[in-house]
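Subgroup meeting minutes
Present: P.N., E.W., G.H.
Scribe: E.W.

1. P.N. recapped why we're keeping a running log of single-chain structure predictions: easier to compare across weeks, and new members can see raw inputs and outputs side by side.
2. G.H. added today's entry (1010 aa).
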Amino acid sequence: MTKNKQIFVRAHTEIVKLPTSRRPKAAKPKPDGQKKANLPRWPEYVLVFDCETTIDASQALTFGSYQFCRAFGNRYECIEEGIIYADEVPECDQGGLEVLRHYSKEMCAETPSGYPQQLALLSRSEFVEKGLWLAGACAGATIVGFNLPFDISRLALDNRDARHRNETWSLVMFQDKCPKTGTARENPFRPRVIVTPKDSKAAFIRFAGVSKRSKKSKKRLVPYVPGRFLDLRTLGWALRNESYSLQRACEAFGVPGKLDHQPTGQITREEIDYCRQDVRSTVALLNAMRDEFDQHPIDLQPERAYSPASIAKAYLKAMRLVPPSEKFNIPDWVSGAAMQAYYGGRAECRIRHTVVPVVHTDFMSEYPTVNTLLDLWSFLTAQALRFEDATDDVKKLLTTVTPETVFDPDTWKRFAFFALVRPASDILPVRIPYNGETSNIGVNPFTSQDPVWYAGPDIVAAKLLTYKVPEIIRAFRVVPDGQQPDLIPTALQSRAEIDPRKDDFFRTVIEARARVKTDGSLQKDLRDALSYFLKILANSGSYGLFVEVNPERVGTDEKTGKPARAKLKVFSGETSFEQTSPVVEQPGAWYCPVFASLITAGGRLLLALLERAVTDAGGTYLLCDTDSMAIVASEHGGLLPCVGGPLVSEGCEAIKALSWADVRNIVARFKQLNPYDPNVVRDSILKIEDVNINPDKTLRQLYGYAIAAKRYALFTRASDGNIHVEKPSAHGLGFLYPPKSGFNDYADEPVWVVEAWVWTLRQHLGLPQDAPRWFTLPAMMRFTITTPEVLKVLQARQRKLPYRQRTKPFNFILSPIIDPLTGGNPVGTDANRFTLVGLFSSNPEDWYRFPYVNVHDAKSYNIARPGRRMPYQAEPKTYGDVVSQYRWHPEAKSLAPDGGSCKSDTSGLLQRTPVTADGFRYIGKETDRHWEQGEDIRMLDPSTREYHPNETAKLVTDPILQESACQVSIRALAMAAGVSDKTVKAARRGLRLRKSTVDKLKDALGRSRT
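Output recorded in log:
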């Protein structure tokens, strides 16, 4: 069964012309205070605070606590402590205010002698004036918190949309009395706070400029000071690559954590103690993170460490390495060819709905290892890059490629090339909407009359998997010229020195990590922390920064009020064209698709080489996931029943399980590819994961069960037949709000995810199982309000309420999962334009009581309990529904054992799906991956930026087509027309579509009538 589909390929874009409002203006003197200042890494003073809120939907400020700290050496200590209370305390909470007053008089501040011992009591207005303005803006103190955007928005008086095109929130913090009317107004001499979410883990925060000027002198009355805001949640992510809660961060950094108390939203002594401890923990966490951050000899302020990549970039900068975009003159056609060749990691399920014994293996630091094998450090440090024709050389190389040659590290240096390929059933990565909805990447037999660009390692992998040389039209090789002058050495957390003139950065980091792991002079905690840091540094500096693009909206046309459009030139493979777009993709500082494509292709080549080694030994694998593969293996090996297997056992189709000895031999073979110092990294680059190993270092029998790509669990079986989940995947579950609190440290996943997998496995194995109590709760997603569009929908019915009672930026919200296929939406509503969001509560009983708003039309609805729905209500799925259906999620990228479509109940050894290109579609950054990104509201509107070679080839869908499309099933019409569900939805809404797409829809509708 072959899929004839339009192929999605990535494109490189260059901005040709910006709208007038976006063009650079003539140079003007910068506003006062905006000149670049050499600020110290850590200021002398910090203001640390935390807010407690009501537990109702408004999440309004009840009170807060703060510590104003001064640096004594490299440690911050509190020199003033106080409590904050809301300006307008409701009459019903006056008793709470008295509690605060008594508490502040009776309790002492935790300050050293010589500093105020009285616990200060400040109103919100007093706190923002003395703290944010005088301390933060005027005195240069850093404002510190954990999940800082939430706490700052609790102190705000109002929220406005930011004026700048790519900023989000403008928070009003200060007010005074109007001299004419005597009424309260926004203080024109104080700045707002601008908060722009970067992603679910970081935000850009600064003071806005104050526009008030003197009429006589025309000078700014108030200097512009951007301020310094440090969110420790973000800094923890940058240092440890973990998204922590405050409690888990304290545990990870070894400082006292939160009190064991459940907030009530009331003002009590217990609540005050709880809040003060949160601030105390935040200060301790700040000191611990400072100690760790200061071990990095880099020029980076902590508030600018937004991710592990920020630290990696700072190390590269410390060596004076010039970013590729500034140093190399890479032709646009080269970037277009490289971007067309760019694909992410390989992830697939090969055996489905069948429990098999496995040995789980993974590659040691896959991307740093690939960088070292390809010698990409010589490219990064080069003075220039050349792109030489290598057509004949590449053709000759491919004829000699065998597994033995690819196991030679010296051969890898010849794989740094790109080739234009005319695929003919060659196993290559190909991006299509396998499931009919969103594009995904599969490594499958690919055929195309039109040639496609691929990176060298992918073409070598195709030869390994088929023993057939792909047809090469032409090829070019990337060649480094010289070495960039003025490079200087730097140190890795004082562990090892890197001299970029002679040392490979990626090799040195991995070797330093190996030394740390075996350094008996270090305490275990320090050894583990250093090893983890070096792993993060190597991974974050070896891939993602080279493909970083940041979509930005162009803005609004001042004349028409409609979105303005920039003129772009688009490059992808052999195609280039111009078009206009309301969004531009601004490349990151280290953007270089040549490097990014080679690196990810190298990772897929490692997996292809492992697949070849396993199949040559007569075995197969359960799954692979970017840098890992679960090989079907047992202690002594043998035949296993498996539908679609190539062997026969007792009259049944079967596969061969390799023995543990076979797997060890394969692992040992990859030792040949070890590019590191053998005296430091003695083992193979392929390792057997710890999940397979007993405490006494012996292997144990592990079993695996896979549903689809990234949906699997590894488990052990006890002698009594019971099971124990060792490694569960949260993919497809982790986007849900946890129905049960707790984290399973052993499995490294939330408790409820482990329980969901236990229930699923026991059901599959026919073992008795009891459904968890949370199965009956409505399935909810939790988001943080990070976009004005969503907030405006929720505030539509709150305009008459005071700001304190309204929904605010960075409030948590809930979105129940309504299944349109089962008619969960209210009668008379469009199932495809029905997405509910509602106010957050951690109490499930409130979920049925609160109203929800449809983001498409701002109408309000309630949800009903299962089986009790009235026609005007919505009925969400339950968690039990989600978990029950989770098992039946099809592996759309593969075919069933019989060669047909992989359906929900398909089991056995899957086949690769042959794909034939039926045209190409050019896309930008793929943004439909938010299901893995945490509490990001963009999950509700996944999208991929698409570029059209001929913009005039679109027309407005005519009313007849729109009406006809609304009368048939979206999925049925999409499958019949060979388009995505998203395209059918656009047709039903009367949006502009390409003529060819409209013709397909009309033909499909015509066939359905006949």
